[in-house]
Amino acid sequence: MRIAVASGKGGTGKTTVGVNLARYLMREGKEVCFIDCDVEEPNAHFFLLDKFDTEFKEYVPVPEIDTQKCLGETCKKCVQECRFKSLIWMVNEVMVFPELCHSCGLCKLVCPAEAVLDGQREIGLVREGGMENLRFYSGLLRIGEAMAPPLIKKVKEYAANKGDVQILDCPPGTSCPVIESMEGVDFVVLVTEPTPFGLNDLKLAVELTRKLNHPFGVVINRDGMGDDAVLRYLKEEEIPVLARFPHTQEAAQAYSQGKLLIDALSEFQELYQGLWLEIKNNMSGGTQ
User: How far is the C-alpha of 99 from the C-alpha of 266, rounded, in Å?
Assistant: First the structure.
């Protein structure tokens, strides 16, 4: 069972929901695999893990040009066919801009002189750790790296088939990193807050999730801090409300101290039990 926890915007409590759900499932005896797909700003390990056991540098293929074989200005097919402008003709040779390369391999395919060689570019780290019945995987994008999806894909490959339940903590927003994180999941938990900003970005997240054809439901976090516009929208769209977590000073204090809400406040045990039951009930019949 693969569950993605996502949100249309940052700051809704997406990671908070993900790590507390993981803790609840661990208490229920499930083998949990937590995958932190927010490789630009990973932070779920602060709540679930003491330390990482191992880490690996990860790379993606990029072209290198053999100038002795290259046919030069009479050809330039690699430059002409590159859709991402990562190859240009300058100062009588083909220059490669690795950060723009999407590793599609087209340049090597079209080169008639076999002058395009296999190179590689470091994209970041994949980190792994565990404790009790938890396996934890995370990525850390290299500073200056423009594209997160290749590293997210690597993290998911390391975590493949691990655990009874996989929880994927997606990056915020609705862009390519989120799409890569959601790829192949069984259910999506969208976390929102009852504010105008929360509603606006929830609509974007709902649109994306529907396009990807994933069953999903919504968690309203910090319930009571805003208005009821989010609830009205969910009712109009016939989207299931999986849980409503209250906005309390006690919860804010526990979070600020790095504590899991399910450990610090007894009422959250029941709330996360209800969330898990709603996820299971909506797995096959959830809205799309």
Answer: 48
The rounded distance, in Å, linking the Cα atoms of 141 and 144 is 8
Q: What is the CA radius of gyration of the chain?
A: 22
Residue 284 banded pLDDT, cuts 50, 70, 90? low
The total of other beta-carbon atoms located within 10 Å of residue 7's CB is 30
Q: Does the residue 201 lie in any domain?
A: yes
Of 263, 271, 277, which is closest to residue 27 (Cα–Cα)?
263
Sequential DSSP letters for 189-252: EEEE-SSHHHHHHHHHHHHHHHHTT--EEEEEEEETSS-SHHHHHHHHTT--EEEEEE--HHHH
**Tokens matching residue 27:** 């208490």
Contacts of 226 (CB under 8 A, 6+ apart): 193, 194, 195, 196, 198
pLDDT at 217: 97
Q: Tens digits of per-residue pLDDT, 56-84?
A: 999 999 999 999 999 999 999 999 999 99
Determine the distance from the C-alpha atom of residue 131 to the mean position of all C-alpha atoms in its chain, rounded to a whole number: 22
Question: Has residue 76 been placed in a domain?
Answer: yes
The per-residue pLDDT for 79 is 96
Examine the domain organization and report whether 222 and 193 are in the same domain. yes
Closest alpha carbon to 37 in 151, 144, 143, 146: 151
CATH code assigned at 112: 3.30.70.20
Q: 148-169 as b/e, with b when 16 or more CB fall inside 10 Å?
A: bbbbbbbbbebbeebbebbbbb
Domain span holding position 236: 2-58+124-282
On whether both 89 and 183 belong to a single domain, the answer is no
What tens digit of pLDDT does each residue of 17-54 get? 999 999 999 999 999 999 999 999 999 999 999 899 99
159: nearest Cα among 186, 127, 183:
127
- What is the bridge-based pairing of β-strands 116-131 and 54-65? antiparallel
162 shares a domain with 229: yes
